[in-house]
Write a structure and sequence with these properties.
0% strand
């Protein structure tokens, strides 16, 4: 990661503020998610655990970035950069895993969906390893990574190939994850407005795709720049290296916040009435009240969808 902007921020004493502003936002939003889910279910689900792990990796990434700026020699800088890049990608893939767990919990209503979910999950898991391991080959064999000087031409050539591979795998997994709920929403018996609002929640994945496009473009621009004094591309890369994982962690926590919206509270009340009526009907002591319409679903707070799938 270029050190131009980071070094300037460090000299001004503002780098920790820049870095941990994003970190603090991710911490607050994630803990808010955990509080809401605990208050609603009295337990935490798999997607909550994965979101928490993503936050832990994000905080670790930021701590390493701060140490990297303070490194006193090239070898230390390269080692910190390698560790930071690996944690960067681990954070993003834990965010993908969070969305996959949430989608399965909500839309697990048909065998066709389960097969599609497993295909996307396996592809996502496999795609992580080329991205993760490509960080080790930027200067040739991994044993040469921290042996300065790293040949600039070789580094740039290897990094250009790596950027293309990382971008293709990163964006393709996001698109596949996004397609899973969108395909299911189309089959639900609910109003068009409800379908659009539900799709909009999962379309938050698009924010991560936009971040990937910007960061990859900045990386290529920085690698191809022939002017050593040109820092615009490197500065943009630095900004998005910090922003992308923080924004991803925040985005994957946001669906839980729908539970506090007025419409979600109304759905919760209707769902409780339906369950009580069903329980009473099972005992033969109560006549069923009208069941809430299918428009009350899906429950994006984490409960499974109750809807017909064709």
């Amino acid at each position: 990661m270029p050190l131009g902007l980071l070094a300037r921020l460090q000299e001004d004493g503002t780098f920790p503020i820049f870095l941990w502003t994003f970190g603090a936002a991710a911490i607050v939003v994630t803990f808010g998610r955990l509080y809401l889910r605990w208050r609603q279910f009295k337990t935490l689900k798999v997607d909550d655990m994965l979101n928490s792990l993503a936050l832990v990796c994000l905080v670790s990434t930021f701590a390493i970035f701060e140490q990297m700026v303070n490194a006193v020699d090239d070898v230390s800088t390269l080692k910190y950069e390698l560790a930071g890049d690996m944690l960067f990608w681990t954070t993003l893939y834990l965010v993908k895993a969070t969305f996959l767990a949430l989608i399965r919990n909500i839309f697990n209503v048909s065998e066709r969906f389960r097969r599609a979910w497993w295909v996307v999950t396996i592809y996502t898991a496999i795609s992580f390893w080329p991205i993760f391991l490509s960080e080790l080959w930027q200067c040739g064999p991994p044993s040469d990574y921290a042996t300065p000087p790293c040949d600039a031409a070789q580094f740039n050539g290897n990094e250009l190939v790596s950027v293309g591979i990382r971008f293709a795998l990163h964006v393709s997994t996001d698109l596949m994850i996004l397609a899973l709920p969108l395909a299911q929403i189309r089959t639900l018996h609910m109003s068009t407005i409800k379908k659009v609002s539900t799709a909009a929640v999962f379309a938050l994945v698009i924010i991560d795709i936009i971040g990937a496009i910007i960061k990859s473009s900045a990386t290529i621009c920085d690698l191809l720049s022939s002017d050593p004094n040109e820092t615009a591309c490197g500065d943009m890369l630095t900004i998005w290296t910090v922003c992308e994982p923080a924004v991803a962690v925040i985005v994957c926590a946001l669906p839980a916040y729908r539970a506090i919206l007025p419409a979600s509270r109304k759905r919760k009340e209707q769902s409780l009435i339906m369950r009580r009526n069903l329980a009473a009907a099972g005992d033969g002591t109560h006549k069923l009240n009208p069941v809430p319409s299918a428009d009350t679903y899906p429950r994006l707070s984490g409960e499974p969808v109750v809807a017909h799938v064709v």
